[in-house]
Amino acid sequence: MKILVTGKNGQLGRSIQKFISNFNYHEFILVGREELDLSSSKSISKYFEIDSHYDVIINCAAYTAVDRAEDEIDLADEINHQVVKKLAEFTNKQNVKLIHISTDYVFDGKNQSLYLESDHPNPINVYGKSKLLGEKAIIETMPNNAMIIRTSWVYSEFGNNFVKTMLKLGSENNEINVVSDQLGSPTYASDLAEAILHIISNDNFSKKSFPTEIFHFSNIGETSWSDFATEIFKISNLNCKVHPIKSGQYSGQAKRPLNTTLSKDKITKQFKIRIPTWQESLKEFLDRNRLVVDLW
Ligand SMILES: NC(=O)c1ccc[n+]([C@@H]2O[C@H](COP(=O)([O-])OP(=O)(O)OC[C@H]3O[C@@H](n4cnc5c(N)ncnc54)[C@H](OP(=O)(O)O)[C@@H]3O)[C@@H](O)[C@H]2O)c1
Question: Could you read off the pLDDT of 23-33 as tens digits, one per residue?
Answer without folding.
Answer: 999 999 999 99
